[in-house]
Design goal:
mainly alpha; single chain; about 0% strand
C-alpha cells in the first residue's frame, strides 16, 4: 500500500516566439487510407519536411499570382488538403 509519494520535479521556463514554436508529431505516418496520400503528400516529421511544405505552398501562391496564370489553373494551385485532424494537421491548417 502506498502511503507517501515523493516527487523531485525541476521546472525550467523559457520563452519562444510564435514564429519558432515547435510542432511535435507522432512516430508513424497515418494516411487514414486516403487515396493518393502516400504518393503525393508531404509528411511532417522533421524540420526539413516543414521547409519543403512551406516552399511548395509559397511556390503555388507565386504561380497563382502571375498574370499569365489562367483562372482554372489558379483554382487548382490554391487547393490544399490536410489529411488528419491531429495536432500537426490542425496546426498546419490553422497557419495557412
Amino acid at each position: 500500500m502506498l502511503t507517501q509519494l515523493s516527487l523531485n520535479v525541476r521546472v525550467s521556463v523559457c520563452c519562444l516566439s510564435l514564429a519558432a514554436a515547435p510542432v511535435g508529431v507522432g512516430a508513424n505516418n497515418n494516411t487514414f487510407n486516403t487515396p493518393g496520400v502516400k504518393d503525393y503528400a508531404f509528411f511532417l516529421k522533421e524540420a526539413k519536411h516543414a521547409r519543403l511544405v512551406r516552399s511548395k505552398i509559397l511556390s503555388h501562391f507565386e504561380r497563382a499570382a502571375s498574370p499569365t496564370t489562367s483562372l482554372a489553373e489558379k483554382e487548382l494551385l490554391l487547393q490544399f488538403v490536410v489529411v488528419g485532424g491531429g495536432p500537426t494537421g490542425v496546426e498546419l491548417a490553422g497557419q495557412w
